[in-house]
């Protein structure tokens, strides 16, 4: 396709992404390199319904003066990235020097907020992604074999886990898995352990979140694969059948290769979405046992009255880098496909 | 929630309440645009203020839980999107630090004759906020269960522990205590309560240096840990809704819980009359030999934005003064513990008022308190789970806070 | 193929049916539970004493006099104007889907037909863009939007949602277009069509299955969005999900969870209709031999 035609075709889409995503990303990366000016603090007497007290406040006029001179703040280089709330180089160094053994060292590192979040994020991504792909594919195959009259209702029901707002979906599920809830009580009865609680221990909370993630995302993989299955060329399938290929062989040698671009696509999207896991943590009140990178960003922006833009920007940039690393193998594959086709 | 205020909201949302009473407020013209959190007391104030709408005066509101993230950018624009932001002790600081609200002294002198002295939030000499309601966490307890266990209502947290033990020993309840111990903001708030009850200071005087890593901090954490032993093992996931449900279902007998939830706890929804009828309130307990209740006092109040026209500022002040009036307070006596003169407190207000009278401290109004609060919410979780000791948790909190405070330019 | 497979391998058919039934149970149970519970009071559906209360309706009977109540629906739709949010959501989702798909099909088609390297890099960039957590982006929009005085309008949210959705749409449609053989449009161009004419006459008729599937996801994104709509819309323009969230209350004050539950159940009805409708489109449109390899 010539450059000119390509340009006009891609323009609307590219423009939207440029203005609303690319520019903000640039500003976010720049912001992560700066910290705010030293606040000019003054002590004043504050009074209110509950009496008076000497308290400190920011001298807004003096601080604004500083800001006018350098609107971005003080240049801080990568120091925000390496401070304790992010990559924590100093703390890791200290832990390495002081910890008696590897287990202790690992424990120290996992008590740092960034690494604690990273460990859950990675575990979640590694567990949920393959399950979603495999389950979605199997369901698509199975649904494809159903009589067409049943397909509509079955597709709708299969989509339910995805279309219910996670906000409420997780709220309802959170109550269902409570030790007094229908699922929680059933599990207690099955495990014959009346003190079992899915919310109290870290491993069980993690497993709960994994299961929720798989349950929530499988419909996505299913729909994409199901749509893809409709395009499997009939004649190839028929000739495979005439050649005496078993069902398994047909899936392995005809269906799978045909769906491989979609497999890559679902894999990419799932890796990325799972790496950004956030809503279930909030929905399941799981902050005590599981945090994710996106949750840290949320906590920086919304946790305190004053949002920590620089810190959130640094974590966001680290998320981008993390996703890029995670996607590299898939990208290399895409690159090969791309050059081969080209 | 009564049908009455729901109807009021409905009418308000439909824009039917553009009454003709603007003459009563005495505003000639102007636009009043309110940004606030989303709960009944604030709805009541705004509804009353809407009476001032009419001829050349408009009163609109955006009442949303997202208000804190909107406030600074919305008021930074010129003219500001909103002419008033309703704030609490914790959310005032960002507006002050960015110089987004105006002093109200002159307006009070001219138009605010009914505003009592205790409603004025003074920063130095300037009145920046007019507070209209108060809230605090205080004691909720089951009178019948305590009687059965043969103990008096607790006055101190040491009493609370003894009561919990007695209730558990008599097998009246498996988990007699409950509390908003959800990791994050709630858990940190519990620490703030307890630490203030111990008589602690959060920062070194006159600076942003943290000062919680001391015996009082350790004692506060140890007390929280001891209490948690009598709580449902899921306690680190318990927010206000869970705690309310625990109380209403009769699963727990004692909690230090939000006064603003009193009405919902004792109403006829979600509980049996026997349980709801025997839930009583009192001031928050003291702790560790301290003399003041281990809780923090909160207020809500209105501000007037800086980047707006004089006419709008005037209209806003007058309309909100009308909104937060004694008439409004007495029409909605259970919506909040109003600070407005002439308001007759109901039985639900005892917990908050007693805590106040016994000298409980307000939530600290320093600009970097929010950062410390966030750090606490994340870092003391490991201690509560028993994975590290109290001193380490406090040291970690200080380290996390310092990194954030450096970024904000406070250290 | 369906008939043959089931005749040849009955065991496989049984296994696969059992698998589907199991999956449907897992997928539907929480929803059915919610549907059932939406006619109860909070004390039953969220019972701390015994989950059996949600089935028997003990508290519901005590509080309302019958085992089922429409209070939640009445509260959400009549007392809290949920219909208003429903209309807003309708507007937002309609425009987001239409604009996303228009932009996405053009872009995705171009990307699938270009062999230059920049096409690959655009795809990669789009992917990286998608990795940015929405909440960071949205926080960055606030100040400029307030300054430009475009904050709070449905149109602004629509544009933002379209942009945020673009990387996904682009990737998905690009994958679909790649499965449509190049010869199809190239032969049209040999016959004298311009690129756009070829796109219009040859590609558009066969692209619907992919577009509809992509549209479904654009729809879900706009329909379920919270991060963007909760912070970028005024109260009058609020869409359903933030409205539902506002039923949940705050730390200090109890909300009305049953309104939220009923609202969620109502919100799935249009989805049900849409899916049933487009399901037929997907299947019939495709098996009619859209793609001839």
TrEMBL record, chain A:
PROSITE patterns: ABC_TM1. Keywords: Cell membrane, Membrane, Transmembrane, Transmembrane helix, Transport. It holds the Pfam family BPD_transp_1. GO terms for cellular component: plasma membrane. It is found in: Cell membrane. Residues 118-330 form the ABC transmembrane type-1 domain. The chain crosses the membrane at residues 7-30, 122-143, 155-177, 206-229, 250-272, 308-332. InterPro entries: ABC_transporter_permease, MetI-like, MetI-like_sf. It is a multi-pass membrane protein. Gene3D superfamilies: MetI-like. The keyword Metal-binding does not apply. One of its GO terms (biological process) is transmembrane transport. Belongs to the binding-protein-dependent transport system permease family. This is Carbohydrate ABC transporter membrane protein 1, CUT1 family.
Automatic annotation (TrEMBL), chain B:
The lineage of its organism: Bacteria, Pseudomonadati, Pseudomonadota, Alphaproteobacteria, Hyphomicrobiales. Transmembrane segments: none annotated. Keywords: Periplasm, Signal. One of its GO terms (cellular component) is periplasmic space. It is found in: Periplasm. Residues 1-23 form the signal peptide. This is Carbohydrate ABC transporter substrate-binding protein, CUT1 family. Pfam families: SBP_bac_1 (PF01547).
From TrEMBL, chain C:
GO terms for cellular component: plasma membrane. It is found in: Cell membrane. The chain crosses the membrane at residues 12-36, 87-111, 118-144, 150-177, 198-223, 257-278. It comes from the Bacteria. Gene3D superfamilies: MetI-like. It is a multi-pass membrane protein. Belongs to the binding-protein-dependent transport system permease family. This is Carbohydrate ABC transporter membrane protein 2, CUT1 family. It comes from Fulvimarina manganoxydans.
């Amino acid at each position: 396709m010539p450059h000119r035609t390509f340009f006009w075709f891609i323009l609307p889409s590219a423009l939207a992404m440029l203005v609303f995503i690319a520019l903000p990303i640039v500003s976010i990366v720049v912001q992560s390199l700066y910290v705010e000016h030293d606040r000019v603090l003054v002590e004043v007497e504050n009074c209110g319904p509950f009496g008076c007290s000497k308290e400190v406040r920011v001298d807004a006029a003096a601080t604004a003066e500083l800001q006018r001179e350098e609107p971005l703040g003080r240049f801080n280089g990568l120091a925000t990235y390496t401070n304790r709330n992010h990559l924590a180089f100093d703390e890791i160094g200290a832990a390495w020097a002081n910890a008696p053994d590897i287990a202790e060292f690992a424990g120290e590192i996992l008590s740092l907020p960034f690494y604690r979040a990273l460990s859950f994020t990675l575990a979640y991504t590694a567990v949920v992604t393959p399950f979603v792909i495999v389950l979605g594919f199997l369901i698509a195959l199975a649904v494809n074999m159903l009589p067409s009259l049943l397909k509509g209702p079955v597709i709708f029901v299969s989509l339910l886990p995805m279309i219910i707002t996670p906000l409420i979906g997780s709220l309802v599920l959170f109550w269902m898995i409570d030790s007094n809830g229908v699922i929680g009580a059933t599990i207690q009865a099955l495990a014959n352990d009346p003190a079992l609680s899915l919310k109290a221990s870290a491993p069980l909370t993690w497993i709960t979140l994994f299961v929720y993630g798989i349950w929530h995302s499988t419909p996505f993989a299913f729909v994409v694969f199901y749509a893809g299955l409709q395009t499997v060329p009939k004649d190839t399938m028929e000739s495979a059948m005439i050649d005496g290929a078993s069902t398994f062989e047909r899936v392995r040698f005809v269906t799978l290769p045909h769906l491989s671009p979609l497999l890559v696509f679902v894999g990419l999207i799932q890796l990325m979405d799972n790496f950004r896991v956030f809503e279930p943590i909030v929905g399941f009140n799981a902050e005590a046992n599981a945090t994710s990178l996106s949750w840290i960003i949320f906590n920086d922006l919304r946790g305190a009255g004053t949002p920590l833009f620089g810190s959130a920007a640094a974590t966001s940039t680290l998320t981008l880098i993390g996703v890029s690393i995670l996607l590299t193998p898939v990208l290399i594959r895409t690159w090969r496909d791309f050059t081969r086709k080209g | 929630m009564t049908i009455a205020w729901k109807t009021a909201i409905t009418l308000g949302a439909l824009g039917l309440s553009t009454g003709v009473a603007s003459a009563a407020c005495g505003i000639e013209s102007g636009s009043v645009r309110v940004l606030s959190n989303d709960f009944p007391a604030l709805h009541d104030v705004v509804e009353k203020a809407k009476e001032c709408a009419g001829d050349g005066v408009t009163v609109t509101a955006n009442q949303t839980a997202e208000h804190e993230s909107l406030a600074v950018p919305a008021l930074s624009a010129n003219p500001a999107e909103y002419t008033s932001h309703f704030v609490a002790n914790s959310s005032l600081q960002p507006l002050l630090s960015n110089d987004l609200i105006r002093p109200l002294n002159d307006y009070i002198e001219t138009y605010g004759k009914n505003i009592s002295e205790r409603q004025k939030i003074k920063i130095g000499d300037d009145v920046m906020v007019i507070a209209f309601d108060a809230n605090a966490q205080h004691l909720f307890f089951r009178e019948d269960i305590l009687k059965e266990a043969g103990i008096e209502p607790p006055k101190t947290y040491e009493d609370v522990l003894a009561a919990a033990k007695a209730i558990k020993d008599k097998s009246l309840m498996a988990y007699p205590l409950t509390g908003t111990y959800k990791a994050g903001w709630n858990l940190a708030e519990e620490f703030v309560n307890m630490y203030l009850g111990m008589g602690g200071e959060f920062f070194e005087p006159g600076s942003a240096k943290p000062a919680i890593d001391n015996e009082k901090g350790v004692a506060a954490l140890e007390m929280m840990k001891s209490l948690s032993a009598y709580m449902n093992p899921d306690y680190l996931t318990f927010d206000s809704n869970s705690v309310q449900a625990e109380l209403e279902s009769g699963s727990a007998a004692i909690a230090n819980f939000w006064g603003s939830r009193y009405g919902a706890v004792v109403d006829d929804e979600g509980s049996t009359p026997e349980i709801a009828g025997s839930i009583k309130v009192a001031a928050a307990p003291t702790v560790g030999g301290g003399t003041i209740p281990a809780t923090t006092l909160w207020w809500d109040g209105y501000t007037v934005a800086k980047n707006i026209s004089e006419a709008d500022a005037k209209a806003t002040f007058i309309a909100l003064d009308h909104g937060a009036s004694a008439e409004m307070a007495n029409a909605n006596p259970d919506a909040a513990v109003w600070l407005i003169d002439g308001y007759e407190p109901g039985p639900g207000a005892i917990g908050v008022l007693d805590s106040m009278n016994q000298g409980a401290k307000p939530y600290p109004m320093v600009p970097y308190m929010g950062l410390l609060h966030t750090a606490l919410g994340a870092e003391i979780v490991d201690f509560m789970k028993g994975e590290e000791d109290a001193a380490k948790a406090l040291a970690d909190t200080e380290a996390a806070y310092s990194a954030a405070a450096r970024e904000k330019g406070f250290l | 193929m369906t008939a043959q497979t089931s005749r040849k391998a009955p065991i496989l058919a049984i296994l696969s049916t059992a698998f589907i039934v199991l999956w449907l149970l897992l997928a539907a149970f929480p929803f059915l539970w919610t549907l059932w519970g939406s006619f109860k009071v909070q004390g039953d559906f969220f019972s701390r004493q015994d989950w059996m209360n949600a089935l028997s309706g003990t508290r519901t009977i005590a509080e309302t006099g019958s085992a089922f109540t429409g209070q939640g629906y009445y509260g959400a739709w009549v007392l809290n104007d949920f219909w208003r949010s429903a209309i807003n959501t309708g507007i937002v989702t309609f425009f987001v889907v239409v604009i996303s798909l228009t932009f996405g099909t053009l872009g995705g088609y171009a990307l699938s037909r270009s062999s230059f390297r920049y096409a690959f890099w655009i795809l990669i960039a789009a992917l990286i863009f998608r990795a940015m957590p929405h909440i960071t982006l949205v926080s960055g929009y606030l100040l400029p939007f307030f300054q430009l005085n475009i904050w709070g309008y449905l149109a602004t949210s629509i544009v933002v949602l379209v942009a945020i959705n673009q990387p996904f749409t682009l990737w998905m449609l690009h994958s679909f277009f790649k499965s449509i053989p190049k010869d199809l449009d190239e032969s049209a161009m040999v016959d004298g069509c311009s690129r756009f004419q070829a796109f219009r006459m040859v590609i558009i008729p066969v692209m619907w299955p992919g577009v509809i599937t992509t549209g479904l996801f654009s729809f879900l994104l706009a329909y379920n969005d919270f991060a963007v709509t909760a912070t970028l819309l005024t109260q009058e323009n609020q869409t359903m999900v933030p409205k539902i969230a506002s039923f949940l209350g705050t730390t200090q004050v109890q909300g009305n969870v049953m309104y939220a539950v009923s609202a969620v159940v109502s919100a799935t009805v249009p989805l049900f209709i849409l899916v049933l409708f487009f399901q037929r489109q997907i299947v019939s449109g495709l098996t009619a031999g859209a793609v001839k390899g």
